[in-house]
Amino acid sequence: MIRAEALRKIFYDKKRGEITAVDNLSFECRSGMILGILGLNGAGKTTTLRILATLIKPSSGTAFINGIDILKDSEKAKAQLGFLSGDTGLYRRLTPKEIVRYFGELYGISKQESDKRLAEFSDRLSMGDFLDTKIDKLSTGQRQKVSIARTMLHNPPVLIMDEPTAGLDILASSNIVELIKRAKSQNRSVLFSTHVMHEAQKLCDEILIIHRGKSVKSGTIDELKIETGMDDLDRIFMESVRNAQ
Ligand SMILES: Nc1ncnc2c1ncn2[C@@H]1O[C@H](COP(=O)(O)OP(=O)(O)OP(=O)(O)O)[C@@H](O)[C@H]1O
Ligand SMILES: [Mg+2]
Description:
Blueprint: E1 2-13, E2 17-29, E3 34-38, H1 45-52, E4 60-65, E5 68-69, H2 74-79, E6 81-85, H3 96-106, H4 111-125, H5 140-152, E7 158-162, H6 170-185, E8 189-193, H7 197-203, E9 206-211, E10 214-219, H8 221-228, H9 233-244
Parallel strand pairs: 3-8, 3-9, 6-7, 7-8
Antiparallel strand pairs: 1-2, 1-4, 4-5, 9-10
């Protein structure tokens, strides 16, 4: 599970000065739960996810990944999670097969087992055509598929995904949705950000809406519906953000 406690991140930018990208965020994503984080461009989603994935340090506050403090024991926390963000971790001169083997090795997975797992992802995400093509030559969506395979390869108990379906066609997107559902059924925690409201509405047990780094609304879809008197997440989101201006 993931527990964030009063996370705050302040960036210092020469031109813009102090930017509070994440402002006192606390939330929980239990095992077997899918939490969706929503917010406009620049709201602080990626920054929050990068903190949880131990890639950057919060300015204050902390978080726990399966009970492990990301500040006190970041390596151990990192071992519990798979993090998906853009094409992070894709070496351009390697092929998908080489990348998956390389990461497999880091996780202590044999070459045979890595190939077997890659074959499963390849089946689900139609990757067969480009397993031996260098990343350099792949399209955005093809790279995203490789990233997903890399992120999920070692079956981490906690999955953190920044816009997992960005750039994917409708078939690949629905396959990702299935992979996320499967992770939930295996009692893993899944935290993901998205701009695709219908995807969040379909998938998430709980939603966290942030604006300028702050939480402006959270709860189950049903709770949000009752609280706002509105039926679809598109409208709930727009209203929450408008009211927070
Ligand atoms: N390294 C950095 N240095 C300075 N400012 C940063 C840095 N990274 C992010 N920011 C700022 O922090 C804020 C939050 O950015 P973040 O990337 O977390 O937003 P986001 O919610 O992921 O947006 P999007 O939907 O566009 O991906 C923005 O104002 C951004 O400009
Ligand atoms: Mg982002």
